[in-house]
Amino acid sequence: MGLNVIMMGAPGAGKGTQAGRFARERGLPKISTGDMLREAVKEGHPVALEAKALMDRGELVDDGTIIAIVRDRLTKPDTQPGFVLDGFPRTVDQAVALDAIMEERAQGPLVVIDVVVPEEELVRRLGSRRICGTCGANAEPGGAVCTKCNGELVVRSDDDGQVVVERLKVYERVTRPVLEYYRARPTFRFVNGAQAPEQVANDVDSMIDDAAGSGGPAKVAGKRRTSARAADQAEA
Ligand code: AMP
Asked: What is the CATH T-level fold of the domain 3-119+161-234, as seen in this structure?
């Protein structure tokens, strides 16, 4: 059974950072559809050039293309022990397609983590976010160069003013229903992403371990703590 995680959250919620950290610590591949698309654009892949126009406007790339990319990625052997998805699924149709892929794989439940951050904070974070122009990694806040490759830091093309507004609108309209699609599952958890980064990391870890434990035999090593969701349910 694999540890299969989806890191959900609005643009700027920190889901990419948490997905990367968790994947590294647990030796799982992080699968970021945004990174894969940006990589394909860099390589000048013809399909990607069409995608770039949409990405630059803050709109979503079509479901068929994205689902095909993820379906193919999930056939790779490094995903056998599990994976951490970042930026997928973003539509209900993508979530339905992922369920079908998971059924074919028959390798454990999907743990869904929603990193929740208030909108004013998202706008503030996206306005000050920098990435490495060379390797694409997220920069440390206040850093001068990339800590991974010393590359120059740049503003991501879709983090510019009006595009940010559009991405947040798209998130509300198209991606929020995905949370509703997952919310009733015993493996769904949310985390307060507006806390200090170490606290967010702690909460993400304990929620994933807790959810994996409740979703079947995919429980992983680590302390099992009572989740906020379980506490909420106990109170209700
Ligand atoms: P991200 O790095 O996850 O914020 O993604 C950057 C951009 O890539 C998005 O604004 C979309 O244009 C596109 N993209 C990434 N993932 C998806 C997805 N699952 N479905 C559709 N478009 C996507």
From this structure: Rossmann fold (3.40.50)
